[in-house]
Design brief:
The complex is a heterodimer of chains A (322) and B (324).
Chain A lengths: L8 H9 L2 E12 L2 E14 L4 E5 L6 H9 L6 E6 L2 E2 L7 E4 L11 H12 L5 H14 L15 H13 L5 E5 L7 H18 L2 E5 L3 H7 L2 E5 L7 E6 L8 H5 L2 H16 L18 E3 L4 H7 L7 H5 L7
Chain B lengths: L11 E10 L4 E8 L4 H4 L1 H4 L7 H9 L3 E3 L7 H10 L1 E11 L2 E11 L6 E8 L5 E10 L2 H7 L2 E4 L3 H9 L3 E3 L11 H7 L1 E11 L2 E11 L7 E7 L6 E8 L4 H6 L5 E2 L6 H8 L3 E4 L1 H6 L5 H7 L3 E9 L2 E9 L1
Antiparallel strand pairs in B: 1-2, 1-5, 3-4, 4-5, 6-7, 6-11, 7-8, 9-10, 10-11, 12-13, 12-17, 13-14, 15-16, 16-17
Helix pairs in contact in B: 5-7
Classes of the chains: A alpha/beta (322), B alpha+beta (324).
Chain lengths: 322, 324
């Protein structure tokens, strides 16, 4: 009997575990005064299918740069981004972005704004099918009554809901949210967070959320990726968030674990706090019972990752390739 | 029953070095340090562990390190001795020669109400290029242990990630202030002070990163040193890092110390030359083994020394020396 080409359950699970792979991503900008400045350097992250990963770090560390490279809107200097095993090249409808500002076309209604992308992604659907898709997603974000309103007739929160519906209606493989709640008041923000979580629970879209808000990062995510400070920013630590879905805000805010996880994030950010201009680096008092030889191998790699031994020498972690 | 730990004792209560003896299908005890653990000292004379049984057999078969939290798994007599001596766990670390497990170090750690310490094994996560917590033993670290199970480190980040990237051991002398130690949540408030990261490499494969995290009051060992090839003197060994747990005279005695590879020239050189760990019980035995800082060790009340070679691609890259 010929071998079946159908993926086995374990193959599928292995593929789902590496649904999005970001491999040694680098973004460098030319510097007329010397070597190119690497804003992001050696960023590695794997995202499981259906997971929401939030990315947190100090302002200017390169979070949005990473997101823009994933969206294909900012060229990658080196490294790869793979979505479902395919290397991405430039922007595409398989990746949808929601920015902090809704970026709606002001002369179009919410229905027309969402229809723009739907027409592109469902060219073979009938007019009626496309209409139903738009209505479905606007309904999902709570805008059933505002489908024919213009942006000027809607609040900031409502406009952002249109932006979210426009992105999700594309049924992207990867949804990229770049501080989508940054301009909203806290009540609208919480409401919209729950709206998005509700949609993602239903649609199971793999999502990356860029945020500055520690509570938001923990509450919404399956994993939180903490970025080190730039230049040469990379993933510093990844925290698993074990709360079950659908998320229950009241229960989560009442659990000790939420505050432990939150504390862990705050500590990471505090440790990576940038020195303020003119401020001298904090001096740690020298201890008589501690010896550190300058320039020894243990320091070489920390100071200059380019001098580290070839990655493949230490890359073979049991299970990592499975 | 929990026992209080005298200030002069380390949390490392006892250690044994076992070598597989394939012809007799058993493990032979190569050396042991027992401190005051007399009940444990008598066990090897009564029972010989079989090559394919128990935690030792498991480490030999899989080549992977192991943390045993239930010491009765090490055998009935060890379980009895552990209860008598107030031991909480054992960490078993394989040492390899040409990719094969050549010896296994067993470290027995005390428990007790005032003890604060952790040993952890960080291993590769399936499907991800990250290290996550594989096995652990925590004592007096409730919050720290709760958080650690959710943390993952990519290559180059945190103490485990740095050991992975460099393939080298690393000492963090002050966990509360070190930039490279990222789990300070809980560590500082729980009193953790010193960290030692040890990559366990089988040829080019990273099996695990072993971490020992100690408080100042109940250190796992009092002295930690890393010895590397001296860049200024080929064939020589020099310290790259050292922490001395407040032993100022011993620190001073270590100042200008160097060793020569291939010479019977102290413990780091022995471990480097043989590529095998060296475990010494008692200060007199340290003298017989050619220890250079004998008077300072005696004055500091040090009673054991362990030299652990870090071997990568069949070449020793560093020796970690622990004393207490």
């Amino acid at each position: 009997m010929p071998e079946t080409l159908q993926p086995t359950a374990s193959n599928q699970a292995a593929r789902d575990a590496k649904y999005v792979e970001i491999v040694n991503l680098v973004k460098a900008y030319p510097n007329p005064l010397g070597d190119a400045i690497k804003v992001v350097d050696g960023y590695n992250l794997t995202i499981k299918k259906g997971d929401l990963i939030s990315v947190i770090g100090h302002s200017g560390c390169g979070k949005s740069t990473v997101l823009m490279m994933l969206a294909g809107l900012n060229p990658i200097t080196s490294g790869d981004v793979l979505v479902e095993g395919e290397i991405i090249e430039g922007p595409g409808p398989d990746r949808a972005v929601v920015f902090q500002a809704p970026c709606l076309l002001p002369w179009m209604t919410s229905f027309q704004n969402v229809m723009l992308g739907v027409k592109r992604c469902y060219p073979h659907g009938t007019k009626q099918q496309r209409k139903e898709i738009v209505e479905y997603y606007l309904n999902l974000v709570g805008l059933a009554d505002s489908m024919h309103k213009y942006p000027r007739e809607m609040s900031g929160g409502m406009q952002q809901r249109v932006g979210i519906a426009r992105a999700i209606a594309l049924r992207p493989k990867l949804l990229l949210l770049d501080e989508p709640f940054g301009r909203l008041d806290s009540l609208t923000r919480m409401d919209l967070q729950d709206t998005i979580l509700g949609i993602l629970d239903k649609e199971r879209i793999t999502t990356m959320l860029i945020t500055h808000d520690v509570d938001e990062a923990v509450y919404m995510a399956d994993r939180v990726c903490m970025m080190t400070n730039g230049p040469r920013a990379k993933v510093g630590q990844v925290l698993d968030v074990p709360f079950e879905r659908p998320r229950n805000r009241k229960e989560i805010l009442g659990s000790d674990l939420f505050y432990d996880l939150r504390g862990s994030l705050v500590d990471f950010l505090a440790k990576n706090e940038k020195e303020k201009p003119g401020e001298k680096p904090k001096q740690v008092a020298a201890r008589e019972d501690v010896f550190e030889a300058p320039g020894m191998p243990h320091e070489v790699f920390g100071a200059d990752p380019d001098k580290a031994p070839p990655l493949q020498l230490f890359a073979s972690i049991p299970g990592a390739s499975a | 029953m929990p026992q209080s730990i005298p200030m002069t004792q380390t949390l490392l209560a006892a250690a044994e070095l076992w070598r597989p003896n394939a012809s007799a299908n058993v493990f032979d005890l190569q050396s042991g340090f027992y401190g005051g653990c007399e009940a444990l000292r008598s066990v090897p004379s009564q029972v010989t562990p079989a090559l394919d049984e128990g935690p030792l057999g498991q480490v030999a078969a899989t080549g992977r390190p192991l943390i045993v939290n239930e010491l009765s798994e090490m055998g009935f007599l060890v379980g009895e001795a552990a209860a008598t001596e107030g031991l909480g766990a054992a960490a078993l670390l394989p040492s390899y020669h040409q990719g094969v497990v050549d010896s296994i170090l067993v470290m027995y750690l005390r428990s007790g109400p005032e003890a604060v310490a952790a040993v952890e094994l960080w291993a590769g996560t399936k499907g991800r290029f990250e290290l996550s917590l594989d096995q652990s033993y925590y004592v007096g670290l409730e919050r720290f242990s709760r958080i650690s199970q959710y943390v993952n480190f990519p290559q180059g980040s945190g103490l485990p990630g740095q050991c992975w990237q460099t393939g080298m051991p690393l000492i963090v002398p002050d966990l509360a202030t070190a930039k490279g130690f990222l789990r300070s949540s809980g560590a500082e408030s729980d009193g953790l002070a010193v960290g030692l990261g040890l990559p366990i490499m089988q040829r080019t494969e990273l099996r695990s990163v072993f971490l020992m995290l100690s408080s100042a009051a109940t250190p796992i060992a009092r002295v930690h040193e890393i010895w590397v090839e001296d860049p200024e003197q080929p064939g020589g060994l020099t310290r790259s890092q050292g922490t001395y747990g407040g032993l100022i005279d011993f620190t001073a005695a270590s100042q200008a110390l160097k060793f020569s590879i291939g010479q019977p020239d102290g413990l780091p050189a022995q471990a480097w030359t043989s590529g095998q760990p060296v475990l010494i019980d008692g200060v007199e035995a340290m003298g017989e083994a050619g220890m250079k800082r004998l008077d300072a060790a005696r004055e500091a009340g040090l009673s054991f020394a362990l030299a652990w070679p870090v071997v990568v691609v069949d070449r020793v890259r560093a020796v970690v020396l622990m004393m207490g």
